[in-house]
Amino acid sequence: MYKIEVAPDTFDRDMYKTDEIAIEQIKNNQYPKLVSEIPNADQYDLILVGSPVWQGAPATPVHTFLEQIKNYPGKVASFYTDAGMADGYEDTFKEWAGKLNVLPAHEGSNDLAAWIKELS
Length: 120
What we know:
Blueprint: H1 15-28, E1 46-54, E2 57-58, H2 60-68, E3 75-81, H3 89-97, E4 101-102, E5 106-107, H4 112-119
């Protein structure tokens, strides 16, 4: 398991301010750096990426993660949590994933185990 994590001062504790920060990161194509190196994932057939939904998109650190695994030969699938505004999440994830082999995403509050079983 790898935790997608950025420096503690990257975002605000207030979710609305964090949304504003993320919008600026996307607008300026300046995504946050991750605090730890991603281990070699080539030994895995599937990577699951979990994320909250920020303004209808994955959290911006996910962009950095996907960029760093852009040559991964296996499959990638995302699950997410949201408060009712996930429109565009899957499209944005696929855009950020580039040439990665992306499988359908899953809203995380509904039967995650069944979705994982479908992927295997």
